């Protein structure tokens, strides 16, 4: 399955994109992948390249990622409007008149925001480990913090009460949170440390979300599309991990609010089910996308 990489100009800068097509044209609708973060990468989505045996797969690292370049003030760059315009720019560049969206975490927020604007040509969406509002996200974070051991809970409380972000005890608590609810069963060493470092060094993450996953004080703090879910009519697959820091209540709120949605729980996963249970995730996503054509 040939992969073609392409640098693409989008509002605010330039991003890295790539497309993988089946060996023979299939006539099936492409899937466009929206990664997490903000400021993350589609590198972790390599497992989904398997879907390209049946349909085109398009991925890109959004503006603010390490493989992008940008210029401009944060209040203009790191906005929902500009990110939705970026989705439109990628669709236009690849001729994605019809498309299935796959949004994970922040990519799920962006997908919901985009769908709320009633775009043409989106025939379905996978909303993975996400929520329909920042309030729901924050509440889920607090529920998961309450599951930590007492010393870790105390360290988080002290930091939230004004303690320093670089306090060693808070750092250990944050890593325990990530190991438990973000990358619980992800193969490899130092995964929690890698994710935490990436987020804290990301301009767009700090601006829109906060210092790390335990903070919800960025520019997205007032975001909510809960009231708009009922106006989204495309078929949707909502997935969540049993130990996800965006928990089952977040997934249920989305499923219950949409008009045509199904929910799948991955029992052995936290926030990154595509890395924790890749075979099950690929099978689930493949069956859903094939039901759409």
* CATH level-1 class: Alpha Beta
Work out the number of β strands: 9
What is Rg? 18 Å
The major sheet is characterized as:
9 strands, mixed
Which regions contain 5 or more consecutive residues with pLDDT less than 50? Answer: none
Specify the overall morphology.
globular
CATH level 4 superfamily: Alpha/Beta hydrolase fold, catalytic domain
* SS-based class: alpha/beta
- Kindly report the CATH topology: Rossmann fold
Mean pLDDT: 96
Label the CATH architecture: 3-Layer(aba) Sandwich
Sheet-strand content, in percent, reads 15-25%
Counting DSSP H or I runs of 4 or more residues, the number of helices is: 11
Gap from first CA to last CA = 19 Å
Helix content: 25-40%
Q: What's the order of the H and E elements?
A: EEEEEHHEHEHHHHHEHEHH
* Oligomer classification: single chain
Number of domains: 1
What does this structure look like?
This protein has a single domain (3-136, 220-292), classed as Rossmann fold (3-Layer(aba) Sandwich), CATH 3.40.50.1820. It is 38% helix and 18% strand. α3 links the parallel β6 (99-104) and β7 (122-128). It has 11 helices and 9 strands. The model has no long low-confidence stretch (mean pLDDT 96). It has helices at 74-77, 80-94, 106-116, 134-145, 150-160, 168-181, 191-200, 203-208, 248-257, 273-276, 278-292; strands spanning 3-10, 13-20, 31-34, 57-61, 69-70, 99-104, 122-128, 236-241, 261-266. It is an alpha/beta fold and 293 residues long. The longest helix has 15 residues, at 80-94. Strands 1, 2, 3, 4, 5, 6, 7, 8 and 9 form a 9-stranded mixed beta sheet that branches. α5 packs across α6 (168-181) and α6 packs across α7 (191-200).
């Amino acid at each position: 399955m040939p992969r073609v990489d392409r640098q693409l100009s989008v509002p605010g800068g330039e991003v890295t994109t790539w497309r993988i097509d089946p060996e023979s044209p299939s006539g099936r609708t492409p899937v466009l992948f929206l990664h997490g973060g903000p400021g993350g990468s589609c590198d972790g989505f390599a497992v989904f390249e398997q879907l390209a045996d049946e349909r085109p797969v398009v991925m890109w690292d959004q503006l603010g990622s390490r493989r992008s370049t940008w210029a401009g003030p944060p209040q203009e760059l790191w906005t929902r409007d500009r990110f939705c315009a970026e989705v439109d720019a990628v669709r236009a560049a690849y001729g994605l008149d019809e498309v299935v969206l796959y949004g994970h975490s922040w990519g799920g927020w962006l997908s919901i925001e985009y769908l709320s604007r009633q775009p043409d040509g989106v025939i379905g969406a996978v909303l993975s480990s996400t929520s329909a509002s920042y309030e729901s996200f924050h509440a889920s974070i607090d529920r998961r913090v309450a599951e930590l051991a007492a010393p870790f809970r105390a360290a988080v409380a002290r930091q939230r009460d004004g303690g320093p972000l670089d306090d060693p005890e808070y750092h250990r608590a944050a890593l325990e949170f990530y190991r438990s609810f973000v990358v619980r069963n992800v193969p490899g060493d130092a995964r929690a440390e890698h994710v935490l470092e990436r987020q804290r060094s990301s301009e767009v993450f700090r601006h829109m979300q906060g210092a790390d996953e335990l903070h919800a004080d960025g520019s997205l703090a007032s975001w909510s599309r809960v009231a708009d879910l009922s106006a989204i009519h495309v078929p949707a697959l909502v997935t969540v991990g049993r130990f996800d820091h965006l928990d089952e209540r977040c997934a249920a709120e989305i499923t219950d609010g949409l008009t045509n949605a199904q929910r799948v729980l991955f029992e052995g996963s936290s926030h990154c089910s595509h890395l924790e249970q890749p075979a099950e995730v690929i099978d689930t996503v493949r069956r859903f996308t094939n039901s759409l054509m």
